[in-house]
Specification:
36% of the residues lie in helices and 16% in strands. The protein contains 8 helices and 9 strands. Strands 1, 2, 3, 4, 5, 6, 7, 8 and 9 form a 9-stranded parallel beta sheet that branches.
């Protein structure tokens, strides 16, 4: 099963729904969205349409991160947000994310850590405590740990049944979780030298398909996250269909 979509609605929702059955919601990372907005999105989408959710930045990014400028939250300055640290703010941020996933009926939540979140002893301890204490229900969690050693990523993912999320042109996943799921995010020029402002070539897309097939997982989520993501995702879907695999566009 290959599922293809974009990181965010690359077109108006009505147009997007005509072409794809998967989207990764980005707004949920930057700010806390009204529940009526989330409910409206779920109602507008076809019944078989799938949302995945990018976790709220309160879980992952400290308030010094420039991403907080878009949060809309009034901060006192002493909040302990981010870095998966054992704090009230981080756990509240997880509950906010869980509620979003519940409303959108999301199957997968993607937790993306900042590049400066290295695999130090403190950060590994924070990650271990976080995943030991959260209530995830039936959610599958994909985690993007940029800058960690593969051995430490694999250890964490296996211990807590996480999906190692990667850009496959930069590096390959170490772990697919108990349900054998790949979650790949395509950020731009292979291997990432020119991010976002890049149109994937036919050769790139063929390499991507070869990578997906080589992984031999039960399901692959392929999310494009570049300026030309709508067209590139459509082109990749066409390429996949030519090979006649089981596919959800």
């Amino acid at each position: 099963m290959i599922k293809i979509g974009c990181c965010g609605f690359a077109k108006g929702k009505k147009e997007y729904f005509k072409h794809f059955k998967l989207v990764e919601i980005q707004q949920t990372f930057y700010r806390i969205l009204p529940e009526n907005t989330l409910k409206r999105w779920r109602q507008e989408a076809p019944d078989d349409f799938e949302f995945s959710v990018k976790a709220f930045q309160g879980i992952t990014h400290p308030v010094t991160s420039p991403t907080w400028r878009r949060s809309g939250l009034k901060l006192k300055g002493d909040e302990r947000y981010g870095n998966l640290q054992p704090s009230k703010e981080v756990m509240e941020s997880w509950e906010i994310t869980r509620r979003v996933c519940d409303i959108l009926k999301a199957r997968i939540c993607i937790i993306q850590l900042p590049k400066r979140f290295k695999d130090s002893e403190e950060n590994i301890k924070n990650a271990t405590e976080f995943f030991s204490n959260i209530d995830r229900g039936d959610l599958e969690i994909a985690i993007e740990l940029r800058g960690w050693d593969d051995k430490n990523i694999e250890k964490l993912c296996r211990e807590f049944d996480l999906i190692d999320c990667r850009d496959p042109f930069a590096s390959r996943p170490t772990c697919f979780g108990k349900k054998s799921i790949a979650y790949l995010r395509l950020h731009g020029s292979p291997p990432g030298a020119r991010m976002y402002n890049y149109r994937y070539t036919d050769e790139d897309l063929q390499v991507l398909l070869d990578i997906v097939r080589e992984m031999r997982v039960r399901e692959s989520y392929i999310l494009f996250n570049n300026i030309y993501m709508f067209d590139d995702a459509l082109r990749f879907r066409k390429l996949v269909e030519q090979g006649n695999p089981i596919i959800t566009p």
